[in-house]
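Most newcomers find our protein records easier to grasp once they have seen one. A learned vocabulary of local backbone shapes supplies the integers on the structure line. Here is such a record, shown just as it appears in the course material:
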Amino acid sequence: MDAQTTLIAAFLGILEGLTEFIPVSSTGHLLLAGHFLGFDSAGRTFEVVIQLGAVLALLVVYFGKLWQVFRDAPHDPAARRFILSVLVAFLPAVVIGVLAHDFIKTVLFETPRLIAVMLVLGGVVLLFVDRMAPEPRHPDATQFPIRMSLALGFIQCLAMIPGVSRSGATIVGALMLGASKRAAAEFSFFLSLPTMAGAFAYDIYQNRDVLDAGAVSEIAVGLICAFITAVLVVRWLLDFVSRRGYALFGWWRIIVGSVAFIALSMGL
């Protein structure tokens, strides 16, 4: 792996860490950035696998809370309910992700204009929901009803279209179902753990034959950069959205998507 490729992998890793947990579509950003930088990973595995860095960052930040939940689960119904809630929300992504994997990777990941359009549309939706969401009824992400969690699991699957945003879809769905802004973001954190870990494992398995030493080196650089950046973002995000909401991210999506669409239309 040459110096230029290393720098691009590091840049994309930082971009992944910055965008994974905010509702702007990390995959959309990575695919558009890779397109304009001329970066083409084997089987589009880089863009999926470096998400493991963000998963590890989340585990570090939430280790104490997660450890307590699993420690209390044998004798605490609330802890068991929370674990079940996340697993139920994860199930739709397992089924739909496996069935649609090839279409997602070979068609949707290779359509930059679609990504740009979805960034803009998602930004408009986020601005609307940030202002018009119903009064919160669920202030604690660990106590969402099971039915609500299942609904969020299906809503999360919209993010299989790059540019939609996994966290964005989950947060918008949670807000419309009565979650507070902080609880919506926090539940998207918890749901991302099995979702991204599953995507990582399945993608590695599917592309095991096309990963050479160069691809592994690119992934390692990107993953480390994603981990470091994501730790900082997770620590900052909850306080930010509790005070200021999601409008900033809606405008971010609209600007990035519009600029990308214009650039693509110009043949760049």
